Structures are given as C-alpha cells and as structure tokens.
Amino acid sequence: MYTTIESKMVFGPFEEADVFEIEKSNVNQMIGEHIRTVEFVLRRKENQILFIEAKSSSPQERTSKERYDKFIAEIVEKFVQSFEIYHTLRYNRYNTDVSMGEHLVQQEWDKVEIKFVLVIHGHEKEWLVPLREALIRNMSAYLKIWRSAVVVLNDEMARRYHLISETV
Fold first, then answer.
1. Sign, Cα dihedral of 36, 3, 120, 162
2. Which of 48, 61, 72, 87 could anchor a disulfide with 68, C-beta 3.0 to 4.6 Å?
C-alpha cells in the first residue's frame, strides 16, 4: 500500500498499482530542469484519474494580489505539466522505465474522468471557492480540451473523500 506525507497531511493508503509519484520520479533528469509537477497521480476507481497537489497554505487575494496570482499560476503550471508529462511517459516518448502504477499505464482514456485536485491543509471552506474559480479561469482552455475538472479541498474534505488518512 502507498502512503505519502505532503504539506502536513498523510495521503493514502492507496494501492501501489494506482499511483505514479511524478514529483519523486526522475522526470527532471529525463526532460530537463524547470519542470513543475504535482505530488502524485492517482487512479481512483476504474474511470477516474486525479492529479493531486498539496499545500500547507495559500495566499489570500485580498491580502496580496501579486502573491495570489503567482500562486494560481504555479498551480496551473503544475497541473498542466503533470498531465502532459504523464502522457509523454505513458506513451514512452523518452524510452525510459519510470515506476508508474500498472493501472495507470493500462488506463483506457476514452472513458476516464480527469480531475485536478488541490488540497490545502487547514484552509477555511469559504476560501476554497475563490481559489477553484481562479484555477478554472486560468485553465479554461485545458479543461475544455481535456474534458476535465478542478477540485479544491481542505484537509477535512480530503479526509471525507478518503484522500488523506490523517494530518501531522
């Protein structure tokens, strides 16, 4: 079983066959520096793949618009690059052996639901909606092309959805 600690949260347990630890893989060595990725990719159910990013906090737009915009841009970049890297590796564009869960490798993409999930430890529920809306605005073309969705959760919600088992 797979578990990982990210941003004060214990994600998992998940079956190893359902996980790709993209952030801990050797992607930067293969493709080059300055690649930004989410923590991991998770096959959830037979028809759902989640690109999961964890944060211990996020800036508030009303406090610092500049920091907030930079945060949103960073998350969008991680989601987009992770999606593209996953497909690049899955179709072996780099002729390399990357440790990717076998269920992710065998996933049929014509039936899959794609979700980009941001989990923020200790975040107030009312702060989640503006973040989600900002991510959707900044990813709108990708979301339409990939027929995908953005989800923003705090640790309490992530626990209810069985993404995390505890906080540390």
1. positive
2. 61
